[in-house]
């Protein structure tokens, strides 16, 4: 990465990102300016603190988890490519894409990948299963202080019970997809809105 | 001249119909906005509808006046030049009105800066200045409504920061009451006119045509303009938005008021117009107003779901909402806009300095606020069947050591006095019924009631009949605290891992200090006490430092002491010492009661570190009130300075953790003395680190520093009060 984060994004890079993520040119440049504005250290990468500086994330129950999702395994910095790759999961699906090369690798914002993103937020230890504890953690984050631990535990138990088909009292990715069937449809219609005011 | 005969009764000319068209098109989407508060719609839609209602009153009135002037002259005398003059006058009137409003906004902001000693006048000043804006605009024949509107918009930020909490409440309540009264009176008048036959004349053709046409043409107008707009928008306005916008075009008070004001001599068809307007208003308000909510709900429901969602679906759907909100925030939904940020810079450097007050902190306000918060939270927890001592981790103010405030009684007595049937005696412990959730229903009920809601970007305070509850604030506070705590712990653990190597087995003396004044723990740096006495409750010797697991038990809470300034401040009796941190620095933890060292004397948010990039302040404006933004920015950038190599900059900072008090101190923050849950205490090292960085800040910044700090305190107390 260049030493000045305020350097302009090169055309070739934009093309590459476009191919990889499917964002349009203007969206990429817009997101790049956002990236540079977040990058206080001006070294072309974002650290966790740069994300934590966004005030709205501090009042989002899953805020810190989502920040972690931007960072690849074990790393503390994310560059613009990585940033865009993660954001690409939420790009709206355009109709004309469905006609494009169907044999190519699944686009990042496909239904499965969106669900996989969410699944990985639950599954911290990356063992491809959501255990009861992991579910409890997420539930605790999402729920107010009025629910006791026992109540929460029973909710978690019921959740697993509902979704678990192979009886290992964990939720695997396939079970997750099936269990959130309706939500499945829901998230495909809820898109990342890049408002052009 | 053409005379149109709808029937044999109505005699009106082109100009008259233009006039009528202008006044009947004024939309009053009160009902629509009320629906939006219940059914969450696309926020762009909300902005559009609300914006229209704000500005269209003015536009209608201006157009009305232009046409009236034409009518007075008489249609035959209108020349081409007059049309251009009409257009020009429209522009002048609108823009002129706006300018007048903005000028008065500046004046109002400036005046409220000095009203500290005369709090009781503040609401009066607000009303008077706005009324003055109205009168001035009227004086120059400019648009008075726009003038008032923009006076309010412009002054909002500064006035809100300057005036007291009670004044704010007063202004808000009074405005809503007045608006309610005015609207009611108009509708009473309308009702009376409807039965008073002398005031109107019926013409079936006119009425029916009007009803049909306003609906059709509104839809046409909306669709057409949306089509044009969508070509420039990255995300188009959808069908449902367009439907809501068209259907939500209710006519209301403005149309009726304008039609009644017509001069019967010059507009011969006035009575017919009055009748039509009455019918239109009735019809739209009753029919469309009542049916819009079901319509919106019906349009929004995803077709596939007829069955009740399973628990999985509920949870995951909510999780996805949070995820999406977060990703939107990360991607910077509002974008980096050059002009908006330029405005922010200008505002920060000039306007805010001019219009915002420099205030002195008031400790008594803060203490009362704290007290009220804690007790109120206790009551609310009890009322919901929670167990005070365990579930909410509620802590009662440490009363024993707070001799100078004898009115703090224990909570049980307080509750008894207030008639609550709850008993908080230790012996009586309510057991939350064990979690034998048998039914799906109950689980759903529990979940639905307690899952956090995703953040709505625009809080709807705009209803005339509705005062918003603080639900969102409560949720924000809880989540904020939780997040900050976990971030802190991460920071600590990473930090300790680093310093583990650096440190030898030297003993580090950690002092656990019990702060006597209530705003402890998460707001250590700003605890206020009338005397700088900090009572050491426990002293722990930490044998070795290499045990990061024991973070919980140790740490220093300290109180930030205000610097001794050359300028004498009457109320700054409170000394707020800063303690240097034990971990990074060589272990030398002086107790807080010692006099402040010179390097401690600067509170972390003092001094300017240069202006942060505009983007940060832009985001910060959403969450953090204006007077805290500087501090927020400073705190963030200060922590970067910490990270001279070893530690990562940790955005937990006294100011930041103090932000959790924006809504009031949390029950979870305060643990009774001696409790083991000292995680709150462990804010100490981090806070001190942050604060330790500014030994070299200039003294001349103190003027401003005080303002920010005082502002912060006032803001806390203000938002603390119920």
Observed structural traits:
heterodimer; A: 197 residues; mainly alpha; Recoverin, domain 1; 2 domains; two-stranded antiparallel ribbon; 11 helices; 4 strands; 53% helix; disordered C terminus; B: 722 residues; 3% strand; globular; cytoplasm (chain A); calcium (chain A); myristate (chain A); transport (chain A); EF_Hand_1_Ca_BS (chain A)
Please describe the topology of this protein.
The complex is a heterodimer of chains A (197) and B (722).
Chain A: H1 11-21, H2 25-38, E1 45-47, H3 48-52, H4 55-58, H5 63-70, E2 77-79, H6 80-87, H7 111-122, E3 129-130, H8 132-142, H9 149-163, E4 171-172, H10 173-179, H11 181-189
Antiparallel strand pairs in A: 1-2, 3-4
Helix pairs in contact in A: 8-9
Chain B: E1 3-4, E2 12-13, H1 14-24, H2 30-38, H3 43-73, H4 80-112, H5 122-139, H6 144-162, H7 165-195, H8 204-230, H9 239-247, H10 253-260, H11 270-300, H12 311-331, H13 338-355, H14 363-383, H15 411-417, H16 440-450, H17 471-502, E3 508-514, E4 535-542, H18 614-623, H19 626-642, H20 654-659, H21 683-691, H22 702-720
Antiparallel strand pairs in B: 1-2, 3-4
Helix pairs in contact in B: 1-3, 2-3, 3-4, 3-6, 4-5, 4-6, 5-6, 5-7, 8-9, 8-11, 10-11, 13-18, 14-22, 18-19, 19-22
């Amino acid at each position: 990465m260049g030493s000045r984060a305020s350097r302009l994004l090169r055309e070739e890079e934009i093309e590459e990102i476009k191919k990889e993520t499917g964002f349009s040119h203007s969206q990429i440049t817009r997101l790049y300016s956002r990236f540079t504005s977040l990058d206080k250290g001006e070294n072309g990468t974002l650290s966790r603190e740069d994300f934590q500086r966004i005030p709205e994330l501090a009042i989002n129950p899953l805020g810190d988890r989502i920040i972690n999702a931007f960072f690849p395994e074990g790393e503390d910095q994310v560059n613009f490519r990585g940033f865009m790759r993660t954001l690409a999961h939420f790009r709206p699906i355009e109709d004309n894409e469905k006609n494009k090369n169907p044999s190519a690798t699944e686009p990042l914002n496909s239904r499965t990948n969106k669900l996989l993103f969410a699944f990985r937020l639950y599954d911290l230890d990356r063992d491809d299963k959501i255990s009861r504890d992991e579910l409890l953690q997420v539930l605790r984050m999402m729920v107010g202080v009025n629910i006791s631990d026992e109540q929460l535990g029973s909710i978690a138990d019921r959740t697993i019970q509902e979704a678990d088909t192979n009886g290992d009292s964990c939720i695997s990715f396939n079970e997750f997809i099936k269990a959130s069937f309706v939500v499945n449809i829901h998230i495909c219609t809820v898109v990342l809105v890049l408002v052009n005011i | 001249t053409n005379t149109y005969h709808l029937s044999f009764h109505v005699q009106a000319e082109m100009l008259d119909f233009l006039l009528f068209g202008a006044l009947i098109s004024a939309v009053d989407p009160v009902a629509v906005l009320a629906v939006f508060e219940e059914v969450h719609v696309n926020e762009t839609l909300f902005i559009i509808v609300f914006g229209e209602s704000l500005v269209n009153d003015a536009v209608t009135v201006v157009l009305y006046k232009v046409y009236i002037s034409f009518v007075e002259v008489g249609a035959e005398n209108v020349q081409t030049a007059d049309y251009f003059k009409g257009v020009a006058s429209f522009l002048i009137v609108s823009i002129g009105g706006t300018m007048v409003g903005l000028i008065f906004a500046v004046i109002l902001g400036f005046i409220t800066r000095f009203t500290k000693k005369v709090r009781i006048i503040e609401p009066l000043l607000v009303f008077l200045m706005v009324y003055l804006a109205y009168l001035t605009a009227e004086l120059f024949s400019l648009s008075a409504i726009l003038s008032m509107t923009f006076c309010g918009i412009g002054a909002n930020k500064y006035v809100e920061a300057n005036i007291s909490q009670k004044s704010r409440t007063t202004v808000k309540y009074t405005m809503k009451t007045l608006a309610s009264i005015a609207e009611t009176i108009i509708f009473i008048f309308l009702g009376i006119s409807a039965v008073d036959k002398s005031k109107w004349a019926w013409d079936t053709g006119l009425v029916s045509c009007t009803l049909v046409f306003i609906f059709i043409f509104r839809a046409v107008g909306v669709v057409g303009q949306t089509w044009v707009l969508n070509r420039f928008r990255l995300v188009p306005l959808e069908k449902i938005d367009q439907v809501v916008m068209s259907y939500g075009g209710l006519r209301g008070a403005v149309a009726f008021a304008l039609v009644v004001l017509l001069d019967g001599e010059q507009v011969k068809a006035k009575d017919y117009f009055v009748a039509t307007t009455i019918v239109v208003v009735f019809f739209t308000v009753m029919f469309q107003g009542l049916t819009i909510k079901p319509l919106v709900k019906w349009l929004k429901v995803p077709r596939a779901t007829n069955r009740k969602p399973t628990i999985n679906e509920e949870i995951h759907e909510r999780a996805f909402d949070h995820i999406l909100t977060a990703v939107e925030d990360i991607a910077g939904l509002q974008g980096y806009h050059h002009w908006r940020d330029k405005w922010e810079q200008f505002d920060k450097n000039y306007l805010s300095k001019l219009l915002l007050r420099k205030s002195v902190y008031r400790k008594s306000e803060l203490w009362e606020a704290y007290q009220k918060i804690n007790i109120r939270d206790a009551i609310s927890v009890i009322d919901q069947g929670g167990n005070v001592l365990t579930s909410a981790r509620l802590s009662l103010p440490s009363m024993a050591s707070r001799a100078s405030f004898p009115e703090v009684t224990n909570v049980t007595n307080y509750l008894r006095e207030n008639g609550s049937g709850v008993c908080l005696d230790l012996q009586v412990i309510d057991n939350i019924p064990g979690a034998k959730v048998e039914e799906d229903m109950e689980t759903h009920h529990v979940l639905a009631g307690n899952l956090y809601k995703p953040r709505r970007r625009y809080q709807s305070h705009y209803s005339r009949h509705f005062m918003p509850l603080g639900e969102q604030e409560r949720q924000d506070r809880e989540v904020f605290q939780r997040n900050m705590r976990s971030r802190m712990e991460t920071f600590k653990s990473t930090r300790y891992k680093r310093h583990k190597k650096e440190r030898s087995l030297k003993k580090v003396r950690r002092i656990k200090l019990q702060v006597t004044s209530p705003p402890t723990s998460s707001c250590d740096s700003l605890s206020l006490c009338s005397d700088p006495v900090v009572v050491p409750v426990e002293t722990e010797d930490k044998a070795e430092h290499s045990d990061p697991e024991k973070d919980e038990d140790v740490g220093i809470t300290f109180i930030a002491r205000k610097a001794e300034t050359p300028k004498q401040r009457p109320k700054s009796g409170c000394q707020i010492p800063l303690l240097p941190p034990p971990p990074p620095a060589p272990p030398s933890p002086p107790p807080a009661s010692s006099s402040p060292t010179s390097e401690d004397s600067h509170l972390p948010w003092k001094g300017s570190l240069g202006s942060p990039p505009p983007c940060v302040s832009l985001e910060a404006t959403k969450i953090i009130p204006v007077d805290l933004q500087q501090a927020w920015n400073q705190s963030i950038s200060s922590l970067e300075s910490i990270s001279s190599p070893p530690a990562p900059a940790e955005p937990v900072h006294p100011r930041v953790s103090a932000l959790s008090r924006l809504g009031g101190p949390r029950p979870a923050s305060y643990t009774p003395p001696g409790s083991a849950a000292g995680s709150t205490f462990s804010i100490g090292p981090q806070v001190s680190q942050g604060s330790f960085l500014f030994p070299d800040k200039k003294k001349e910044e103190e003027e401003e520093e005080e303002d920010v700090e005082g502002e912060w305190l006032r803001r806390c107390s203000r938002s603390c009060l119920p």
